[in-house]
Amino acid sequence: MLFLSGEIVVQHTVYFFDLFLYIIVYSIHIYQLDF
Fold first, then answer.
1. Transmembrane stretches, by residue range (predicted)?
2. pLDDT tens, 1-35?
């Protein structure tokens, strides 16, 4: 059970990091477009 919850935490961390990276890339695109 502990191992399963650990897996879920890892999945959530990877998903959050992916989302964070996407936001950064998106912001850079908007900034370049604005320029």
1. 12-31
2. 566 677 877 887 888 889 999 999 999 888 887 65
Structure tokens at 20: 């964070």
Q: 1 in helix, strand or coil?
A: coil
DSSP 8-state class, residue 27: H
Q: What is the DSSP letter of 35?
A: -
- CA 33 from centroid of its chain's CA atoms: 23
Buried b or exposed e, range 3-35, using 16+ CB within 10 angstroms:
eeeeeeeeeeeeeeeeeeeeeeeeeeeeeeeee
Residue 11 token pair: 């999945």
